[in-house]
Amino acid sequence: MCHNALLNAKFYRFLEQIDEDEAGCTRAAGCPVCGCALHSARYPRKPRGGPRDFDEQHHYRLSFCGAICRNRATPVSVRFLGRRVYWAAVVILASALRGGLNDRRAQQLTRLIGVPKRTLERWRTWWLTDFADGPFWKDARAQFMPPVETAALPASLLERFLVAICRNSWLLPCVSLPRSARGAAALRSTRRRCRIYFHPRVV
Questions:
Q1: pLDDT tens for each residue of 183-197
Q2: How many angstroms separate the CA atoms of 86 and 17, rounded?
Q3: Contact call for residues 77 and 12 (beta carbons, < 8 A)
């Protein structure tokens, strides 16, 4: 079930490994403005919604600044969704679950992950308005055939990815994988971890 992953500290450590790998690639590329070396400029975050003991630990948004120009370079993250105070996985998966729940089940979800019902409704509205009408989705939705049902976001998008991953094992290296995992042993290890965390019984 989805909530099992949300309350599993190993799941968040897996996402942290992906973030660290993306950060390594960003740092190796140098400053995108002037090409100078990048120095660590991470900043603290206090995300909510995960395992209680895990949320209470110190967490950082990985980021860098140019050694000469001081311009900030922040890599993409699979743990954080903009400035939202909840983990990105919580925002996405809880929103997907909320779309198919009655009020009683929604209350159970609220008690489970500690997200108020009003916040869940606000997330659902964001997916169906700001995200669906935004430039990113207007461009990205053209890549799916048949089209993803916009009215069922984000559940319809998650379902599409999960079906593709389960049916086509060769897609595993392409979905949420650390880009530095070049060696055969590292690739096998990463594929094994993806099978664990993206299996339908978990997600």
A1: 444 444 444 444 444
A2: 19
A3: no
